[in-house]
Amino acid sequence: MTTQTETGTTQVYRVWIKAAPEKIWAAITDPEWNARYGYAAPGFYELRPGGSYRSTPNQGMIQYAEQNGFPMPDTIVDGEVLEVDPPRRLVQTWRMLMDPTTATEPFTRVTYLVEESQTQPGVCKLTVIHELAGAPATAALVSGSDEAGAGGGWAWILSDLKSLVETGETFND
Fold this sequence. Notes:
- The structure is a single chain.
- By secondary structure, this protein is an alpha+beta fold.
- The chain has a single domain (about 1-40, about 85-165), classed as START domain (Alpha-D-Glucose-1,6-Bisphosphate, Chain A, domain 4).
- The chain has helices spanning about 20-30, 30-35, 60-65, 100-105, 135-145, 155-165, and strands at about 1-5, 10-20, 45, 50-55, 75-85, 90-95, 110-115, 125-130.
- The longest helix is centred in the last third of the chain and has 15 residues, at about 155-165.
- It is globular and about 50 Å long.
């Protein structure tokens, strides 16, 4: 779901995962897990308010940039941890640095919510809320819009996370 407000765009994504909250939390915050799904770029968190977040390019991204004659920064996404309540809630700022247009936009805000189902034991709902005020290029990229050439954006990342957590395999396995 995407909503437009006077202050900008908010995108909301939900996926239900048959797993314990702790396993989903690890898939989000542990680079051993988060380097395996989505765009396979490891994300490193200092899990405390004021802690840093950064994601680094994988080898395929680096090779692609070299082959196509453009620079790939050592950090492709950065931000700051604002709130952390393992394994239920993580709020952080987020800015994509690997694209020159998005790198000039302000930090956006991402909230992860992991909620156990009250009716389906062993199932959790993972909700990602991305507040994108003042960041139209970032909004287009994370939405996975074809016009942005962004791949699948959040929907694709969360679907791949679900596959990994539930089956041990990703889309690329």
